[in-house]
Design brief:
Chain lengths: 717, 119
Amino acid sequence: MTAERAARRSAGTAAAPARPLPARAVRPVMSLRWIVSLAMVALTVVVGGGVGAIAERRARAELTAEIETRLRLEARNLALTSASALLTDYPELTLVPLVRQMQSRQPELAWVVVVDRNGVIHGHSDVRRLGTLYVPPAGLELRSTAGAAQETLQANAGILMASAPILHPGGQVLGEAHVALRRASIERRLAGARRQQFVALAVFLMAGVGAAFLLSARLLRPLGALRAGIERIGAGDLDTRLALDDRTEIGRLAEAVNAMASDLKRAQAQRAERERLAHEMELAQRIQRSLVAPGRTVAGPFVIESAQRPATEVGGDYVDVFELPDGGIGLAIADVSGKGLAGCLVTSMLSALLRAFRTTHLSPAAMLATLDERMRELLPRGSFVTMFYGILEPGAGRLRYASAGHNPPLVYRARQRTATWAPAGGLPLGASRAKVTRVVREELVELEPGDALIQFTDGISEALDRAGREQFGLERMAQRVCAAAPEGAAAIRQALDDAVTAWRGERPPFDDETVLVVCREGTAAGGGVGDDEALSLLDEATRRGRRLRLPASLAALVRIDDWLADCPVLRDLGGLERECLRAALREACANVVEHGQLRDGEDGLELWWLEGDGPAGVTDAGTDAGPAVAPDPAAAVARGHFLLRDQGVPFRPDDWRPTDFHDRRVWRRGRGFGLDLIHRAMERVDYHPGTPAGNLTIMAFGRPGARAGREEIRHAG
Amino acid sequence: MSAPSAVPERPTPTAEQEREAEDLYRRGLAALSAQRPDDALRYWELAWSIDPRHAGVCTALEREYLMRGMEAFAAGRLDDATALWQKVLRLDPAEPRALAYLARARMQRDRTRELIGKE
């Protein structure tokens, strides 16, 4: 319904007519016309002012140079004219009219003076100065001299004065002619030029502003239509198209707006589609969550924990835990090729089939075969499902399982505190036209108190690190399981989840991460012996046990035969039993020599036979390994511990799992029987590497179980 | 401005007249110092009419007439210049500068007539 509503809403929006714009706070508009005009004014003023300043500076320099030249020429001409006048009586009659004429012709001249060689004025515009001594104004500084006639140019703040000597035709100096100009006249001429410049600038400014205003008005006219169109698009009318016959950038902007409206319309439709799909995915997610097993199931001494983290909204992993009619617990975990909606559909199908057949009392292998038949009919080509299916029998403490191409389960043994990978194989469901029954095998795992079985999907083991290069890996899984297993199923599940999450870092899961943990709560059955108890046994053995010292050499192990023959109690064992015991002891010693890296001639082995139960608390009293069995005369005779001590590199042998001697592949492999031999010959084997007394191997001997193992070997042989 | 037409044949001025002429002479000097040459000229001419023998007044008037004549001459007003310089001769008929100035003015007038046919 939500998706339909979203689709209707989307469609309605796309086709809705333009609605009036909501009231918005209107900010004051700065007109582009005014901005362009003001910018034009500013630019013109700056450019005009700058150019004018430069031009004025040059004009001032040129004008000053020109005036100086003219002034020098005036003084020189006056001197030439005055020479003959000074040679007459009353030269003022010539010079005064001359001087007055010069000044009337050039009003900018401050004064024109002709003096004789004694400094007496003979020519001056002010006749009252005639006959007086000429006193030059104060502050005059020499600016330049020119020619051999010693013409000078002097100046002060207000005056520029040129002087030329009046020479007699014979070369003697008769007097001097002075022509002075007011500097203010230069400034007046410059001011006049500046006024013209200002007028020109003002005219240019007005013309520029007018032109800019008119041009911007013409260019910006389409903006109104553009704005109206954008407002219609903003109001939801995505069919609006702007038809501007404009070849400027505004025209291109209109084309971009048209393209944007088209894209928006398309994106709106896509969004509606996405919302519809998201709704469908949400539904699928709900369905899948309903298929996933409850997080915790308790069945007798067993606690079953499961968890799932999908990589996408809907994952392709499946995990289920359900009760079977006969009291057993069905355990299923599967990984569908492909995720998302398709994966969810397949898991739903798988769940339905599994629930349909679970009441038919099928064995795990038969169940997988039945599921394969159905899935092959239903799955499209190229799709397949890897699956683990097991039936837990809480009362018997065992789990029968079969695998269809799924990961091997990890089995934790509390007694040895080790985790090993149990066998798994088969072909994925629906992957092959061949029937799964040909390759599927049923396996059996005995789970003692403290033991656990962990099954998972490859999202856990193949989770990539932060850099996206390295996978989390099976080794790290086993380590985390070993560390957390003593705390129980929830701890194992949590430890794996924390480890994978930390391994991934910020990266989201690449694949669905699903884990199923089956844990038999309680302490380890059979007790085992701790390091302190092992050291007590060693102490007891050194006091009253029978010892054999051996050099670190495989060849020396033959002495074990003689040593056994000298043991009065063991001497009474049957031939096969003694042979098994001899082989087991030689195998244990050989393992120490090989894996402990003992150096021949320097290190050695010590082997004790300690008859009886050993010190108090070390016996197997309190074990719940099975129902009470009637005492066996042979067991009563041969009961005690073999202790093996070495000083080599501490090591712990791989976890031992009983070998199925009925399996022909075991015989074809033809090796790896050493541990099997030791464990079947002995009632229990404990390793204590790195104790203060060295590496200790404690082998309890004389239990009925050991005899059963020996019998099994005998029958198999 | 009233110019002396000739050295007046007057009786010897009284002491009071001499004092008055001296006072006017000094007023004329003060007016000249104050850049009021026209007032100075009037004071001196009045002083001369009272005491024509006052040496200071005569010297001041001669100088003033020479300068004013020179100004008129420089401005091309030959008649005014001639009239002023003749006033100098009335004060001192042997004044060489006035004689030279008048001769130059006369020569210039004659030369002008020769060159352009009129004054």
